[in-house]
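Why do we bother with a discrete structure alphabet at all? Because it lets us treat a fold like text: something you can write down, compare, and reason about line by line. To make this less abstract, here is a complete entry for GTP cyclohydrolase 1. Read it the way you would read a sentence in a foreign language you are learning: slowly, and without expecting to understand everything at once.
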Amino acid sequence: MTDPVTLDVEGKIGTFDEKRAENAVRELLIAVGEDPDREGLLETPARVARAYKEILAGLWQQPEDVLTTTFDIGHDELVLVKDIEIVSLCEHHLLPFHGVAHVGYIPAESGKITGLSKLARLVDVYARRPQVQERLTTQIADSLMRILEARGAIVVIEAEHMCMSVRGIRKPGAKTTTSAVRGQLRDSSTRAEAMSLIMAR
Ligand SMILES: Nc1nc2c(ncn2[C@@H]2O[C@H](COP(=O)(O)OP(=O)(O)OP(=O)(O)O)[C@@H](O)[C@H]2O)c(=O)[nH]1
Ligand SMILES: [Zn+2]
């Protein structure tokens, strides 16, 4: 039986099976020796299912759904939005990792740009999925290149992984930085300029 939440070949997604998610949470509670029928836990499976529906909402979206508004204003230099808060879910442990994303691009030759909020929406489409930080970073940069036909893209993500802080190695505060640089932003001077803007506080 196929999982209702799976990517098909075009990256289109099925629907969220809320009842199944609830049953899974109920099973988990039983597995840890809890009583899912005690008063405090009665609503928990439904709450957790709704929480996952929200945290994983990017599974049912595509980047094209959010990079919609575009304008031609002929700006041909770097556009950078810094400190976009992210919360994602580590696909190894299903624990959150959270931090900030910095997203920049050099618009297409045509001058096509997008609304600033759309960059943050793009980040959420990919963050709200089971992820690894490297793939999240890459997918955002590749979407900017593909959908906006950007001449260059840079994405830097700094995040703390709960799977490293609350369990396992238990190193709270450890931050992981990943970057993806594409197109003209790979040129050393342009890249250095973008990085210095990103690092400036
Ligand atoms: N590269 C990368 N690794 C990640 C990310 N999120 C979690 N991990 C790592 O995935 C690895 C999974 O390793 P495993 O040895 O299979 O799992 P584990 O026994 O729970 O590992 P420990 O966390 O070391 O206890 C761990 O080293 C995690 O730190 C991520 O976004 N990127
Ligand atoms: Zn993890």
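What the structure line is telling us, in plain words: The chain has a mean pLDDT of 92. Residues 90, 92, 132-134, 161, 163-164, 168-169 surround guanosine-5'-triphosphate (ligand 1) (CB under 6 Å).
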